[in-house]
Amino acid sequence: MYPTEHGIQINGKCPFYEARRIIFAKIWADQNATFEQDTPGNEITPHQRQLKQWLTTSLRDASYLNDEPL
Questions:
Q1: Angle at 42 between CA 48 and CA 35, to 5 degrees
Q2: pLDDT at position 67 over 90
Q3: Dihedral sign of CA atoms 48, 53, 54, 55 in order
Q4: Which of 7, 33, 60, 65 maximizes the CB count within 10 A of its CB?
C-alpha cells in the first residue's frame, strides 16, 4: 500500500536533485460495502482494492523534506 516512486530525467539527466525520487499516490477503497463480523461480533477490517483512475495532483519529493510541490 505504499505510494509508487519514480524518477524524472530529461535527456538522460535529472533536472534537479528531488527529481530522482518522486512519489505518486494510490487511491484505495473498501472491497465490500459492509463490514463482516467475527464470532464475538467485532467488525473485521475489509480488504482494500486499488482504484484505477486518473488523478491530477502536484509532484512531491519522496523524502518529504519539502512541504511545497516540486
A1: 35
A2: no
A3: negative
A4: 60
* Grid coordinates of 61: 519529493
Rounded to two decimals, what is the model's pTM?
A: 0.56
Stated as kind and residue range, the H or E segment containing 29 is strand 28-30
8 A C-beta contact, residue 38 and residue 46: no
> What values do phi and psi take at 61, rounded to 5?
-70, 130
Assign residue 67 a region (left: φ > 0; alpha: ψ between -120 and 50; beta: otherwise): alpha
Q: What is the pLDDT of residues 21-63, one digit of tens each?
A: 888 888 899 988 888 899 999 999 889 999 999 989 888 788 8
Which grid cell sits at 12? Answer: 538522460
